[in-house]
């Protein structure tokens, strides 16, 4: 494996959309979603360990989750776990990772990957990731993003319009778009030119640092000021004191939408961001009544189009449920219509106000 | 307390109607149904301990449940726990208890009580039980049953028609009836003469032995043959060998419906046999949307007429459920429409065939 290749896994996110599976103290990425014995983060690390040296995997997280990560990934060395002292969206996180890696290896190429996505075709994924590294090895100024071949007119994602072909399935990016309405999403998908923005990026460490200095100078300034401490024992302390001064901004908005040499690799490897129970329903195999059963023993009668998530050996008997989300954990149970999922955040807030934060 | 008064608590029954709370290895009577820290059996023993000496409480059970009983009632002496080696309905059980008690005290009066019923007015219950003992003290040949003042035209119970008044609310029994259809049940309830057969009985030990010899001679014969061993160390072995020879027959059918001096005390002490989730729903307090919540933290939206039973500290968020039973235990979850409860037995059989007996 190429020692110049690094993976930055972002695993500091919080999300209540998968309640009760995900909680504030236990976000989605740390959960063994499919009862396989591995959390989404552990699966992500395992996938990437086949592609880059394991010691080149850097975990970016919030200090709240340091203990969970040490527990789930005991063989990742402490100096490969960077603890963000505040939530500042992806641009400052990506920047810190870049300056950190540059201090270790100024020739590095870097993949930035979310930790909480589902990949259903791991071989195709590994091939795409290797091709992406090869691409940024050869295009040292490029900022590459992965664009997912869209399977439906999803209104919950941003889209990337692919332009001129560079080689194979690598294109220049024509535009980044915000989440479209349904009509526009249909046009996007029908055109064949638009791809889902996956939040996966590749670049040489120099390209991203240069782009940061140009397009996100307030973020770059914080990192440049700490430059000499990067990769040393003083680094975490410097970040603890200065990170909060970074603006709260996404890498897409801060850099990708503005930079010149932005490219997209169009891919199709069974990707889901697992953003909602509904998204999980969509990507999962279904029984003949269109029910999705996750890690569960179920006896269903007159039940169709439900997603049922029950952990471990637990059994469910259900009847007369159509289009519901049923999600059970040892301390909480959710049963709501699929089309009311957008209210889940409100319901979980209700829970917090009634029963305190332990359930939220 | 009167040392001649004994209580026989029948706690050998098995029932799948409260699945998943009740299981074959853990029937309803052993369950802490209301999260109070006491099983229905423990509550029954506690209620009766205020009325008869605790050492005069005899537990009749199946040998399968001996360990559970010893654990739940560690202060009941082993010689007060009679282990039926086979299921033979109530007549042989009542007979064995009678012969056993007669060997201890030939002047005894006996209450026979189920172990798995709910009593919502314990003071009225205690008064009724004491009055019943007084009655059979004074009427040494009487076989007394308790008839519950019916609150609805229930088709799931047998009814007792009360005839001539003997004193207060004690009557001669005119007829015992099988479970009526709904039309007949309405007539029964409207008449004011019909009462639910509660399965609670009182008699002098001599009266029931005499009645058994006359009306259930095949049962009486088994007990008479072992007469000298009753109350001795040899008793259990004798029963282990001979009990199976008893016919499988209920005390109602074998004796009560045939005997001469059969009386009924009409009572009203907030009784429920807790025979079904629906029955539990009916007797339980409801929220303003007519939901019944048992031992649960719940956030319900657009939910009405449900019964929600979730154990301990567990939380439930539910939306859009009307007229459902939702019952959760650590290893099983039930969500079915209330009006499909009669199918629960079939569903649980499905479970057994699919996943083995551990869930049934």
Question: Which helices and strands occur, and which strands form pairs?
Answer:
Two copies of one chain form a homodimer.
Chain A: E1 5-10, H1 40-49, E2 57-62, H2 66-72, E3 81-84, H3 90-104, E4 109-114, E5 118-119, H4 122-138, E6 143-148, E7 159-167, E8 170-177, H5 182-191, E9 194-204, H6 205-215, H7 217-225, H8 235-242, H9 251-256, E10 262-267, E11 271-272, H10 277-283, E12 292-294, E13 297-301, E14 307-310, E15 315-319, E16 324-329, E17 332-337, H11 344-355
Parallel strand pairs in A: 1-2, 1-4, 2-3, 6-10, 12-14, 13-15, 14-16
Antiparallel strand pairs in A: 4-9, 5-11, 6-9, 7-8, 7-9, 8-10, 16-17
Helix pairs in contact in A: 3-6, 3-7, 6-7
Mean pLDDT of chain A: 93
List the helices and strands of chain A in order: EHEHEHEEHEEEHEHHHHEEHEEEEEEH
Question: With helices defined by DSSP (H or I, 4 residues minimum), what is the helix count of chain A?
Answer: 11
Shape of chain A: globular
The termini of chain A sit apart by 42 Å
Strands of the widest sheet of chain A, in order across it, are 6-9-7-8-10
Record field, number of beta strands of chain A: 17
* Largest interface summary: A-B, 36 and 36 residues
Multimeric organization? homodimer
């Amino acid at each position: 494996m190429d020692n110049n290749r690094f993976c930055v896994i972002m695993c500091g996110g919080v999300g209540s959309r998968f309640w009760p599976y995900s909680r504030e103290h236990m976000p989605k990425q740390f959960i063994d979603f499919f009862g396989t014995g591995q959390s989404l983060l552990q699966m992500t690390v395992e996938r990437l360990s086949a592609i880059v040296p394991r010691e080149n995997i850097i975990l970016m997280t919030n200090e709240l989750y340091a203990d969970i990560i040490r527990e789930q990934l005991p063989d990742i060395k402490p100096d490969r776990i960077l603890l963000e002292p505040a939530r500042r969206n992806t641009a400052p996180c990506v920047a810190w990772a870049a300056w950190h890696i540059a201090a270790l290896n100024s020739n590095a190429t870097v993949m930035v990957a979310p930790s909480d996505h589902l990949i259903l075709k791991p071989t195709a994924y590994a091939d795409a990731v290797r091709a992406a590294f090869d691409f940024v090895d050869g295009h040292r100024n490029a900022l590459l993003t992965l664009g997912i071949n869209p399977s439906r007119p999803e209104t919950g994602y941003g889209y990337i319009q692919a332009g001129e072909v560079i080689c194979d399935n690598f294109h220049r990016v024509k535009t980044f778009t915000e989440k479209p309405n349904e009509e526009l999403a249909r046009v996007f998908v029908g055109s064949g030119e638009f791809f889902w923005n996956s939040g996966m990026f590749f670049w040489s460490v120099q390209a991203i640092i240069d782009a940061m200095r140009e397009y996100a100078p307030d973020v770059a300034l914080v990192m440049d000021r700490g430059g000499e401490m990067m990769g040393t024992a003083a680094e975490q302390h410097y970040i603890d004191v200065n990170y909060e001064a970074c603006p709260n901004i996404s890498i897409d908005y801060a850099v990708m939408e503005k930079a010149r040499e932005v490219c997209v690799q169009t891919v199709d490897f069974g990707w889901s961001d697992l953003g909602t129970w509904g998204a999980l329903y969509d990507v999962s195999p279904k029984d003949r009544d269109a029910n999705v059963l996750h890690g569960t023993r179920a006896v269903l009668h007159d039940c169709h189009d439900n997603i049922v998530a029950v952990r471990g050996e637990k059994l469910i008997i259900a009847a007369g449920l159509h289009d519901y989300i049923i999600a059970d954990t040892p301390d909480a149970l959710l049963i709501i219509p699929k089309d009311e999922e957008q209210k889940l955040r409100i319901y979980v807030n209700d829970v917090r106000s009634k029963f305190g934060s332990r359930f939220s």
